[in-house]
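Give me the fold.
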Amino acid sequence: MSQNNETLEFLTTPDDAGKRLDVFLSEKVEDRSRSSLKKLIDEGAALVDGAQAKSSQKLKDGERVTVELSESPDERFEPENIPLEIVYEDEYLAVIDKPAGMVVHPGAGISSGTLANAVAYHFDLETPSPGSGREKRVGIVHRLDKETSGLIVIAKNELTQDKLSEQFASRKVSKAYIALAHGFVRRLNGKIDDPIARDRKNRVKMAVDKNGRNALTLYTVRQRFERFTLLDVDIKTGRTHQIRVHLAHIKHPIVGDTVYNEGRDNMIPDAVVKKRIRETGRFFLHSAKLSFTHPVSKETLSFESPLPEELVSLLAMIRERGL
């Protein structure tokens, strides 16, 4: 989370005993819906006596509750004429091929230049109905990290957004990524089934934590190099930074990911490749395939996105230089 975020702290009283955490916070935090607070709790932004908690946790008298607010509810994204690569569009939804470097949704310190700003300009989006718990207009159903490129689906109305969100929540959406990891991954196929929560020491990061939310990542080796492995990655859950955290956890962090790879980019012996990775200015993670059921027609929609040129070029250099 950004250093500009606001952290609030509360002490429970006898009157709060037995209340759910999300209910308690919705009573304490002004201008935030219960649904938006629940999302923050699920992302690990709330602590009860210093420990991460679930939104349904029942509180006791005398507990210290802290919550880190990541977005201003009053920050409304304005339409901006930003070019978009539209892969598919109908009256209900659209599929976008997002470039690396584009933030998906406005947040603390970021109010323009995002995918949401572009979507508001290019599509006629429905405004949420009163009492729906949404502070912002309909549109963004799921997210990709700023430096992750590839496919993302956009809803044009509230019903479509709810139906698509249900598919994501019930794991009925197929999401496949391509990642270049540091090191020689020995297992041809692997499963990483470790819960993820916000890092207790560094709130900007996520981490594997036994008290976190369940997270399941599957991977298959596509190609091995001497110092790197190209992977096909399939995530069955949608936790924040999931692929990046899981691959770093098994000691095969993503190339170019300066947040999670603990300086592995700097340990590459080839100065030319090291320089290219730095100049690329992104990490090697691409949302290559997306498949879901159309909320209205019930048709199965499947889309593919090729690797961006800067990643193709980096792979070619690694092959040429025998890394």
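The CA atoms of residues 32 and 105 lie 17 Å apart.
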